[in-house]
Automatic annotation (TrEMBL):
Domain Nucleotidyl transferase: 4-236
Name of the protein in its database record: GDP-mannose pyrophosphorylase
Chain ranges of the Mannose-1-phosphate guanyltransferase C-terminal domain: 252-333
Domain of life: Bacteria
Source lineage: Bacteria, Bacillati, Actinomycetota, Actinomycetes, Kitasatosporales
CDD domains: NTP_transferase (cd04181)
Alphabetical list of Pfam families matching this protein: GMPPB_C, NTP_transferase
Family: Belongs to the transferase hexapeptide repeat family.
């Protein structure tokens, strides 16, 4: 298998303010745009041709990745004029594929961090003779996900949307967001209108008697849809808990990129990333956080499981715990921000003006 479709058109609304200026797949995780990790893992699995289905801030992708040759890939870009949903996006890029009708095409979402064995999923697809194969993973609480029960052979028997009662929870297997389609199946998706592959395509194929195969792979899996999840995913990449050949440095407690200036007595732990040109002042303590390019952390600041946007400034002795600070924002000295608070891009928070916060 040499082809894949990468769905990168979402607006990343739940990730704001991180996605105000940057599409979700391009937000840095472990020092590089998150999309870099996905492309590198696909290339390592033998994929050479990838078509990106873009929409929101589509102009950002090609200037960064170009034709993909630097990564050993052939990249193409197709931009939706109007949002088409997951299924519509897949159908919209079909004309760029080179596969024959019976060939497998890998499809994956631009916001899932996973240790999926891509070659095993393709192998399962081939040996089972399926029309579509799905990566499934198991979760402790499946109520926020669509359930995908299978029979003893792994064949999908139903698609159940977000069950709420114990009686409705018939399996802990969920759709993990990576698929292998036979090329001919992609052509059956209606063209020119929004289509949800999860709510329309898959249930429709099942109703028509198509063979949908599930492969359970419960290695690392994380949906990076929220700021808290994104920060965790970045830290897990640095710590080595999540696999990627694209982490730009040795895995460990910290990753400090070139031209960053970190005071000798600053303490960086928990998979913290310090971006290019960022500054960390004396006595600062940063745990499990991401400090993006050009941000400044002043002396004595305490930061835990937070994301500091590009060019932002955190004042001396300020405490951040589970906070998200937008690009170019300034948080003055002696503030205390906790519990998921988000400071918008370019905002200015005076010194000592906030001592605590609740979820917002």
């Amino acid at each position: 298998m040499t082809e894949a479709i990468l769905l990168v058109g979402g607006k990343g609304t739940r990730l704001r303010p991180l996605t105000v200026h940057t599409p979700k797949p391009m937000v840095p995780a472990a020092g590089v745009p998150f999309l870099t990790h996905q492309l590198a893992r696909a290339r390592a699995a033998g994929v050479t041709h990838i078509v990106m289905a873009t929409s929101y801030l589509a102009e950002v992708f090609e200037p960064y990745f170009g034709d993909g040759s630097a990564m050993g890939l052939h990249l193409e870009y197709v931009t939706e004029k109007e949002p088409l949903g997951t299924g519509g996006a897949i159908r919209n890029v079909a004309g760029r594929l080179h596969s024959a009708p019976g060939d497998p095409v890998l499809i994956f979402n631009g916001d899932i961090l996973t240790g999926l064995d891509i070659q095993a999923l393709v192998g399962t697809h081939r040996t089972s003779g399926a029309d579509v194969s799905l990566h499934l993973t198991r979760v402790e609480d499946p109520r926020a996900f669509g359930l995908v029960p299978t029979d003893d052979t792994g064949r999908v028997t139903a698609f159940l949307e977000k069950p709420q009662t114990p009686e409705e929870i018939v399996t802990d297997q969920i759709n993990a967001g990576a698929y292998v389609f036979n090329r001919s199946v992609i052509d059956t998706i209606p063209a020119g209108r929004p289509v949800s592959v999860e709510r329309e395509t898959f249930p429709g194929l099942l109703a028509d008697g198509a063979h949908l195969q599930g492969m359970v792979d419960s290695t690392y899996w994380l949906d990076l849809g929220t700021p808290q999840a994104f920060v965790r995913g970045s830290a897990d990449l640095v710590l080595g808990r999540a696999p990627s050949p694209a982490v730009p440095g040795r895995r460990g407690e910290r990753l400090v990129l070139e031209n960053a200036d970190v005071a000798p007595d600053a303490k960086l732990t928990g998979g913290t990333v310090i971006g290019t040109g960022a500054v960390v002042g004396a006595g600062a303590r940063i745990d499990g956080s991401a400090v993006l390019e050009g941000a400044v952390i002043e002396p004595g600041a305490r930061i835990r499981e937070s994301l500091i946007g590009a060019g932002a400034r955190i004042g001396a002795r300020t405490v951040l715990d589970g906070a998200v600070i937008g690009d170019g924002a300034e948080v003055g000295a002696d503030n205390e921000l906790r519990d998921g608070i988000r400071i918008w891009c370019g905002a200015r928070l005076p010194a000592g003006s906030v001592r605590f916060s609740s979820d917002q």
